[in-house]
C-alpha cells in the first residue's frame, strides 16, 4: 500500500471500518482482498473502495491532513521512494485489473483517475456511472451444478461474486456470450450433456409471489430485476439463453 495526501472525489460506494485500530485494519484488509484498490483515512474510521466504484482521487498536500492509500503492485522488494506517490513521476501505471493516470480538471485541480481493466475471460460493461467486468463461467464436466456452486465459481480467479443483468441490453449480451460458450463446450467435449447447461445462474432470490428479485450485487438496479409471475418464493434466478427474461429455479 502506498500512502499519500488526497481524498476520494468521485465514487459510487464504499465500506466503512470503525474498529479501534481501524486504519491498520483497513490497510491490511485492502492488501489481501483482490478487488480492493484504495483506502481513505477519516477521523474515527476509514473508507475501503473496490475496483469499479471509485473513479477519481483529488491530489492534496500535507496541510489538508487527508490520507489515502493506493494498492500498487511493486515488483521490487523495496518500496519506491520519491516526491510524487503513488505513481512516482509516471503519468500512468497499469495494475492487473485497473490502471491509474494523472489528470487535471478544467480549473487546474490535479486528480488521479482509476480506469477499470478486465481480464481475458471477461468484458467491460457500464452500469449507470459504474464500470464492471462480467464473465460467464461453465461448471466442470458434467457442467450442471446448483446455485450455491454457481456463487462459488464466481469467486474464483479474483471474481467478486455472482451477478445478474443490469438492463435488457446487457441481458441480451450475456445470453449471446453464454450461447457461444455452450458451442465451445460442444466442440471441446462431444459427450457433454449440453441440454443440462441451457440455463445460466444469476444473482437473486425471489420475493413472495416471485415478481421481484433480491440481489446481493450492489451494481444492479433494482427496477429491472423482475422475473416471471409463476415463480415461487425463495427460489433462485437464472437467465435463459433461448429467450429474454429472468426465470426462477430450484
TrEMBL record:
InterPro entries xrefs: PAN-3_domain
Source species: Caenorhabditis latens
Record domain PAN-3: where: 1-107
UniProt-recorded name of the protein: PAN-3 domain-containing protein
Recorded coiled-coil stretches: none
Origin: domain of life: Eukaryota
Organism phylogeny: Eukaryota, Metazoa, Ecdysozoa, Nematoda, Chromadorea
A Pfam entry, by short name: PAN_3
